[in-house]
Amino acid sequence: MTDTVTPSPEQPVPGTLADAIARAQRVPETHDFPTVDALLADFAELAATHPHLVREQRIGTSRLGEPIHSYAIGSGARDVVLVGGVHPNEPIGFRTLQHLARELVADDDLRAAHDATWHLVPCIDPDGTRLNEGWFAAPSDRVAYSRRFYRPAPDEQVEWSFPFAHKDAWFDRVMPETQALMRLIDQTTPELMVGLHNAELGGVYYYVTRDLDGIVDALHAIPAALDLPLDAGEPESPDLEPLAQAVYRSPLSSEHYDYLESLGLDPSTEVGGGGSADYIARHGTFGLVAELPYWSHADSTDTSGSGRRYRDVIAEKAAALTELGAVLQAALDAAEPDLPVATPFLRASRAFVPAMGHIGTSEAARLDRIDPEREATVAEVFSNADMVRMFQLRFGGILLRAIDAEVQAGTAPVGLRRVRERLGAQYDAWCAAADAVEGLTPLPIANLVGVQVASTLAASSLLLDASRAQAPSDDVAALASGVTA
């Protein structure tokens, strides 16, 4: 590990977009993700090796008793918070934090250029992340990934368990991990907060809490420099506000609540707690999320016409999700009497299985708002179909893991084993269908990490530029305070 780096005349000036991209292009090649233990040991070693630069702070404790730490690097005037493991099935950010930490420790000029204190949380949800480690060593295989996949129930996700109150909604079951992050946010009142997320299939896309001069150009330039496509498919939710291609304003829970209400639906079926964007708004913090896919496909970025009506594509997805919910619900209902232990997999299944039907209903409810003559793009057709595949693999896999907890313990009665056989056969068919999609390309992890590194540095620089532009000059400040030379 190098203590200092002196940029050569050929290297870009720290604090510029060119420098951010250059640092992104230096991310070492990697083909796996670190386990929780390896990640935490790495940061502990970094702090022990550089005590003058890296300060460890305990910010909370996980539900299973694991200490949660933040590592502060530098001592600039601004505070920047980066959080890994916000969703425990999204580990690209672990490599991002490792690389960015080393860049900050090694380069005095980089720290000076950003004038920031960087607060890095390696893993905010260690308990959930450990349940995904079975695929971390070989993340390029989509079926292997899905069979070992875990995502917590929404009220057990850090991202969606912030306090929330809006109209008839009230959420205050804030879990300890979320409280830890709230504590760090309130303590630092950060100018920039970056939640390190990733998607599954498609292109790169982003969320920002507000527009910022130069941010769209930077967020488009970064993946282009790393040979990664921008996403062109269906957004995660139809009520998102696009600022440009693949750049959306971060959704607020209150806005999604109002959208569902406008469709005549019960918002409580999809809206529970608040997100980080809801919480950081109280501090005026700029929020950034770079969503990065593990895989891409030529159709996911093809904006040409498909020859199909967009309304028909959404209706087909709505019907498929409703059917998926019915299949999974039947299996869950049959299994429940023989699942006495509320494992994380069972709790997740109880939340996500009915959610499939709710999402299908909300998609069907918006059909009357769609121009019946509008043609769908190739990317829209592909991404809508792949959402169904993704949910089949994700939530079928989690339900199987819930059942397997009893089967593998040797406590499953014959009825539960029969449910396991039927669901297992259906899951195998879903896996085979997903595996049969030709042209799926695993994306280089180093390039994906680079997008998060560069977009974080770019956002930090643009915020610093904006604050300096708004700051009054010494003469103006003197006049404003009534002081004359």
Structure description:
The protein is α/β, with parallel strands linked by helices and 485 residues long. Helix content is 47%, strand content 14%. It has helices at 17-25, 36-49, 92-106, 108-114, 126-130, 142-147, 176-188, 215-225, 253-262, 276-280, 310-335, 344-365, 378-407, 414-435, 445-470, 474-480; strands spanning 54-61, 67-73, 78-83, 116-121, 164-166, 169-171, 192-195, 205-208, 241-244, 247-249, 286-291, 295-296, 305-309, 375-377, 441-442.
Helicity level, as a percent range?
Answer: 40-55%
The general outline is: globular
Strand content: 5-15%
Contiguous runs where pLDDT drops below 50 for at least 5 residues: 1-7, 474-485
Task: Please describe the biggest sheet, giving its number of strands, its sense, and whether it closes into a barrel.
Answer: 9 strands, mixed
* Gyration radius, rounded: 23 Å
Write down the overall mean pLDDT: 95
Distance between the termini: 51 Å
Task: Note the total helix count.
Answer: 16
Strand order of the largest sheet: 1-2-4-3-7-11-8-10-9
Query: What structural category characterises the helix and strand content?
Result: alpha/beta
Strand segment tally:
15
Describe what is shown at a glance.
The protein has 16 helices and 15 strands. With 485 residues, the protein is α/β, with parallel strands linked by helices.
